[in-house]
Amino acid sequence: MNKKILSLFLVVAASAILAVSCNNKATNPTENSNTSVTPTEVKAADVAKALKSIGSYKNGDQTWNFGDKFDSLKTTEALSGTGDNGTKLDDVKKEVKSKIEEALKTKGIKATVTVGGTANASNTDAVTFKVTVAAANEKITLNGDLDDYKDGKTGITISLTPANAKNWK
């Protein structure tokens, strides 16, 4: 008799577990949610603030201060270096490009940075960084004041020159 009661109990317990596991309700609250996420709008002022947040960039004896610029977003911005000696052009190109991309990423922006200019180791010409922006994902929208800065448009051109008479290396 005890075996029959035990068998009956196991059948009932197994049935109860099966019934609970076959329930159609989601256990993840976001899975059943019908609410949509409102995208975050990024404005030109947000982009300017992100670029300004780069602060002072130092390479060798040269320093460029992004924090002194970008009070508002313009299509061109020129930064002159300070310091007593030249600096490695290839390092500046790579590091500044990375800093621009990282700063804009914090605002949900995918930056396309094209490095150019006529700078070389025997002159003091500017190295330029043409920056265009796009939303990094569907949670970000770009305000209309960024239309000229979007991919395929004018963008922002940031130029860096070394201090007076100090050549790139």
List keywords for this structure.
single chain, 169 residues, alpha/beta, four-stranded mixed beta sheet, two-stranded parallel ribbon, 3 helices, 8 strands, elongated
Task: Give your account of this protein's structure.
With 169 residues, this protein is of the alpha/beta class. The chain is 27% helix and 25% strand. The protein is built from three helices and eight strands, in the order H-E-H-E-E-E-H-E-E-E-E. It has a four-stranded mixed beta sheet, with helices on one face. A two-stranded parallel ribbon has the order 1-7. Strand 2 and strand 3 (62-65) form a beta hairpin. The N and C termini lie far apart (95 Å).
Reading the helices and strands in chain order gives HEHEEEHEEEE
Count all strands and give the number: 8
How many strands, which pairing sense, and closed or not: the largest β-sheet? 4 strands, mixed
By DSSP (H or I, 4+ residues per run), the number of helices equals 3
Q: Which structural class do the helices and strands define? A: alpha/beta
pLDDT averaged over residues:
85
Strand order of the largest sheet: 4-8-6-5
Characterize the overall form: elongated
